[in-house]
Amino acid sequence: MGELSNTVFSHAEEFVQQVPLLVTSSHATINRPAITLTFAQSLDGKISLPGQQLLLSGAESMAMTHRLRSMHDGILVGIDTVICDDPQLCVRHVPASELTSVAHPQPIVLDSQLRIPLTARLLVGPQTNSRLKMPFIVTGPDHDPARRAQLEQMGARVVVVACDAGRLCLGAVVRELRQLGIMRLMVEGGARVIQAFLESQIVDLLIITIAPVLVGSSGVAAALSPLSAPIVPQLYEQFGRDVVMAATILHNVG
After folding, report:
1. What SS3 class is residue 235?
2. Exposure on the CB side of residue 119, measured as CA atoms within 13 A
3. With b meaning 16 or more CB within 10 Å and e meaning fewer, what string describes 156-183?
4. Residue 114: which of 149, 86, 87 has the closest Cα?
5. Which residue stretches of the chain have pLDDT < 70?
6. pLDDT tens column, 37-46
């Protein structure tokens, strides 16, 4: 990604400041953080390709996403995203004057079997940049103790929660994160994590980037079934070639 202009950064800042749930007091409860689910999708509703990295966001909407990251305490992805994309989950696409002062969110990885590579940038990056945070790795009870010891020796925090049919219980995950001080949580992916959070009815805010591309039938959709709770669009904005929508999800309606 090339160098972005101050106009792009200002546009990103103006957009997030118009989203009520981001600028009002936190919607966190005693049981969970306030949860923002964000992802990029194609015109035909696809968010990824099986086992492959799919870059959909343009530079302008990516700047918005990084501004969004700076407004959350934690940023959560699944282990498949870590293995496939090797993300840093930090705030990079902001004005140069902010790079040394911006608050990076706490990286959080859902990894029921502790498959995270020891060479992952989430583990290696904080060893050379003290401003980055070592990840919270949320795992299940049946993890490998030796692997856990390796990760903890590197500085990661391993958080154990209950599983159901081999999958981490999201209710238990968000309760633990709230107890660890995460008041605002941003969920970025991958596909299975996005689908699980949509089905869980614990998402407060949706921010979806729509890219002008068609992926086709081989792509993976964000939702596998209709969402029972109403989605209420609040804001649409064009960022370069992309359109971004911010919407709330109304739970317990009807």
Report:
1. strand
2. 3
3. bebbbbeeeeeebebebbbbbbbeeebb
4. 149
5. 1-2, 25-27, 252-254
6. 999 999 999 9
